[in-house]
What we know:
- This protein is α/β, with parallel strands linked by helices and about 325 residues long.
- It is built from nine helices and 15 strands.
- It has a nine-stranded mixed beta sheet with strand order 14-13-12-11-7-10-9-8-15. A six-stranded parallel beta sheet has the order 3-2-1-4-5-6, sandwiched between helices.
- A hairpin with a 2-residue loop joins β13 (about 265-270) and β14.
- The protein is globular, with a radius of gyration of 20 Å.
- The mean pLDDT is about 95.
Amino acid sequence: MSDKKVRWGIMSTASIGKRSVIPGIQESERNEVVAVASRSLENAKSFANELGIAKAYGSYEELLNDPEIDAVYIPLPNHLHKEWTIKAAEAGKHILCEKPIALDEDEAKEMVEACEKAGVVLAEAFMYRHQKRYEDIKKRIKNGEIGEIRGIHGVFTFNNAGDYNNIRYKKEWGGGSIYDVGCYPISAARLILEEEPQAVTTHAFFSPEHDHVDMMASGLMEFSNGVALTFDCAMWAEFRNELEILGSDGRIVLKAAFLGDQSYEIIKGGKPETVPDDNINSYKLQADSFAESVLDRKPVKFPFDDILKNMRAVKAALESAEKRERIILN
Length: 330
């Protein structure tokens, strides 16, 4: 293993970077954050000083022109993901882009093609997928520990509705709960079932107070053999963050499916067994995996095809809510 590290530039001073992603990168032994950029140099300098980052830039272009940066993290508003991912790829930078990676599958395809042409790594920032427990759960399911899968139920809700200036509440910017948190249970179902949904029906509450974005949505996503994901997501509801996998002979329950404690329960015959986890920082695990692809040329854990298929499913869920109809996916 090489002692070389992936040198990161952070595109924007977004709170998700400050709170979670940057500390995870800094905790990793094979990554280092060397620069941050903002449209305001003053903001970039303040952010850099607070997090111990050496360089601060007053534009994203300056950051991309820095030859000492290997990779960029893009937590910009959703409608800017395509533009800056393509520019980063053309600058020869590897890219970790916040979820959802784009506004639709066509945008995601353009981004993927740009990264393929440039020969750079592109990863979507679903940090939870790097937790060890999800591989353990998939093995238990394949070993028949809970029988045949009958269904999955996932929820991710929070209440931030009072922050009217939040980028999540701008429709043209890709705001709304399906894009922001509904994408988690959708991606989790695809991960666990290892297949793509066939159709989706979603009902949503579109709030006039929040630029008519979906502040709450409930959906049914159909998979093969009569299996379905039922999910709800919200930005104007009590906090929940859970996943249940129901089998014919038992069920697996993650009380903190995407954020928080990484233990889970297996319940059979009404008797719960808690499976503990080492609770390694998910953002560190994400950075470690990214570094293996960049430095060791190891195939990315989730290939370009996964990016496109997940975007197709997420967009279909939103389209169903907007049109009030069932959307056929394949």
